[in-house]
Please model this.
Amino acid sequence: MVKLAGTLSHFQPIQAIVIGDFMLDKYTTGRVKRISPEAPVPVMEVEKQESRPGGAGNVVLNLTALGAKVFALGRIGFDFEGEQLKSSLSHEGVVIQGLLSQKEYQTPVKNRLIADSQQLLRVDFETISPIHPAFEENVIWQLKELLPQAKVVAISDYGKGFLTESLIAETIRWAKKYHVPVIVDPKGIDFAKYKGATILKPNQSEAYAAARLGPHAELDAVAQKILEIADVDHLLITRSEAGISLFDRSRTRQDFPVRSREVKDVTGAGDTVLAILSAAMANGLDIRFAAQLANIAAGIAIERLGCAQITISDLARRLLEYDTDTKIFDDSHTYALRQVLKDKSYSLLVLPQGQKMSNALFRSIRSLAQNEGEEMIVYVQGCHPDDEFIHFLSSLPEVDTIVLQSESLKVLCESIQPREIYFLEGEELRGYDTAQAMLAALKQGVIRVDF
Model:
């Protein structure tokens, strides 16, 4: 019954290592009102400029948005942009001790010029150069220090020269030693350098190039070739509007179509997929569930302008559009519930054990739904509530979340802190301004509910 238990409800705070090419994304936004008299090009009047971590840094931000503690492992230059990148990541709680500075290296910067929600031009500042052997040894030492604390390693390769073949091989070797899954977003046409990874995640054009097959080749043939070359456990090919295709060593294929309302900007969608896959695998989810969640997250990301960070709450709300059972939680999934309710105002309706659908309950739900801007959580007491009743509740649009089998009302209230609490006793709906008032009534025996 609790379908979310197989997906989002298993998400817990995890520790992850993101190793790869870190860069700074700049966004220069404005308006275009005229054409330049100097050349037939638009003139943009700048209204705002902002910067945020990009590349592997965007993967980090996506993982932190999912509640992960992230160790960043990469290189930056001895420059203002490098310091800005470190400061931004540190502000988000990222451990940046592995973000190392290299002499004569420029921190990559991508400046996107955007007018009227459309990207006009991207200006790149970067130096593509391999790391020195001594620098690589330092990175490997940092990696070995961090691995015992990590549940997953995400490799974000943007082809800037940091991820040498030997560094990738050592990363995968040491991760295997500690039984930590490695998820790779590859670059280039030589996928043999990622040999032994848990999941390889190229896009379709990268996959065809790496397989060295023409554009008319079947995707299954491309996948088989890459699996032979890279020897990974799973191959996940992102296919833009066609969604995601997942392959394993037995050549089994599963397709997941993309669901997106409107494509605004595909920037950073691959980083979102890498982050969701990493968080899901670190939490022990089946690869099929992980792929589906990553596909849904990518669909949300491309609806937003620029690099977007997708939260558990974002995923849960999108899943609700596909399956009403997604709104059902039990007591083992308090963390995911808190993430879903983060930064939202909501009231809690407590239903006694054995409650059935009635006119009083229906009137109460409709009445509480009138509280504009506030969501409704229904807490159903009892270890074995009636399945039909729960499914009926989940089908009601007024009910946003259902909680089952909570350890106690006190624990639930302390964890999620509802703004108001209501209790349905017979035909009467009792209201309490705070959880403390509700608990005080419990102690006085005014109402009967599990404590």
The chain has two domains: 3-310, 329-444. The chain has a mean pLDDT of 85. Residues 3-310 form a domain with the UDP-N-acetylmuramoyl-L-alanine:D-glutamate ligase fold (CATH 3.40.1190.20). Residues 287-301 form the longest helix (15 residues).
